[in-house]
Amino acid sequence: MPVKETPAAFPVIDTDPHFTRVIRYMRPSDYLTWAGSTAIGPGLFWLYEKVDPTKASKAALRSSLRLTGFLGFAAGFMLAYQNSSARFWGWRENSDEVKKDQIELSERYAAGKPLYGETELTPYLQGVAARNSTFSQLKLHAFPW
Q1: What is the domain partition of the chain in residue ranges?
Q2: pTM for this structure?
């Protein structure tokens, strides 16, 4: 079954990019988004505590700040991952990623390796896996798989 064609303003690199590839192609702006989201959770929590104190113990506040820091870290990662994925899909400006992709695939071709790796799955299971994971990054906020 073919992948659904979606309108893209920029060249489509891969509609189902591998996790490590998305991470490798992240831009500094993605890391900045991740860091900002990590910092904003505890920052807002601290600010709210100053504006309207809960009179909680310092230990409880430290635990709460750690939890909001972790949640900000996780949410920031998912947002950065989704932004990087959008460039693979051609939904955002992706000229740097297109160049990296061409270099990477040219090197694999010159080395005689398959362009997108090897698999032991049958064609049917490859189709099942692709249908389950294509565009799955769009639902990271609801179901962080």
Answers
A1: 21-118
A2: 0.81
